[in-house]
Amino acid sequence: MDPDGTYPEIGAYHFRTVVKMVIPDTSAAPGNTVHIPIKISDAVGVAGAEIKVTCDPTILNPVGVSTTTLTKDFTLNDSIMTGKIAISIANSTGLTGGNGDFVDIKFKVNENANVGATSPLHF
């Protein structure tokens, strides 16, 4: 947005209501890897997102992210740091179906984590 409150002539903007994304509870043993999806609902027309997820790095660390059946035609970029991942995903056209796994994040459980330890995942 320009300082006068208008948008530049280059680019496209689409504003809509909030889309619900959730991260389901998942478990894995110390030393294992686990795939945890970010689920989306009511997302018809969504053509992209920027998502940041943080976790407790003494228990869990992100190691990768992939598209899903829902987003297989999207371009995906990520930036992985200790205890956090930033995801950028986009497509020139929006989703035609609006519910399911939006992205799949792969995490490595610290091999020294106590059995039963938990790490909340935060957007």
Description:
0% of the residues lie in helices and 41% in strands. With 123 residues, it is mainly β. The chain has a single domain, classed as Immunoglobulin-like, CATH 2.60.40. The strands form two sheets. The protein has a four-stranded antiparallel β-sheet with strand order 1-2-7-4, with no helix packed on it. The protein is elongated.
Which key terms come to mind for this protein?
single chain; 123 residues; mainly beta; Immunoglobulin-like; three-stranded antiparallel sheet
Question: Helices, strands, pairings?
Answer:
Layout: E1 20-22, E2 33-41, E3 48-54, E4 60-67, E5 75-81, E6 84-90, E7 100-109
Antiparallel strand pairs: 1-2, 2-7, 3-6, 4-7, 5-6
Strand content: 35-45%
Q: Summarize the main sheet.
A: 4 strands, antiparallel
Poorly predicted sequence stretches spanning 5 or more consecutive residues: 6-14
> What is the 3D shape?
elongated
Named at the architecture level, the CATH assignment is: Sandwich
- Structure class: mainly beta
Strand order across the largest sheet: 1-2-7-4
Briefly, what CATH class?
A: Mainly Beta
Overall number of strands: 7
Mean pLDDT: 87
Give the helices and strands as they follow along the chain.
Answer: EEEEEEE
Q: What's the end-to-end separation, in Å?
A: 24 Å
Rg from Cα: 17 Å
Number of domains: 1
CATH topology: Immunoglobulin-like
Number of helices: 0
The helix fraction, in percent, is under 10%
